[in-house]
Design a protein that fits this description.
- The structure is a single chain.
- By secondary structure, this protein is mainly alpha-helical.
- The protein has one domain.
- The protein contains five helices and no strands.
- Helix 2 crosses helix 3.
- It is globular and about 40 Å long.
- The termini are far apart.
């Protein structure tokens, strides 16, 4: 059992990511806001959510993209291929 699973015994990493995606879709918020809403609602520490986010490349990329769009981070170059 990983440290993350010990801290969040009732939800798996994939369920966490799915719940964040659901919050983004239904509430029309950014991924950063969705993580905060999830943590407030479930009582999960932000640091615990951060460790899950670090292990998920897709969720981390979505949060980075939101941060770039909101000018919290400098924009990175992206390859666009068709």
């Amino acid at each position: 059992m990983t440290e993350i699973e010990k801290l969040l015994p009732t939800i798996s990493t994939s369920d966490f990511i799915a719940e964040i995606d659901r919050i983004v879709t239904t509430k029309k918020v950014t991924y950063m806001e969705a993580v905060i809403l999830f943590c407030e609602h479930t009582g999960v520490e932000i640091e615990t959510a951060a460790s899950i986010i670090k292990s998920s490349v897709k969720l981390k990329a979505k949060i980075q993209d939101d941060a770039e769009q909101l000018n919290f981070l400098p924009k990175t170059r992206k390859l666009i291929y068709e």
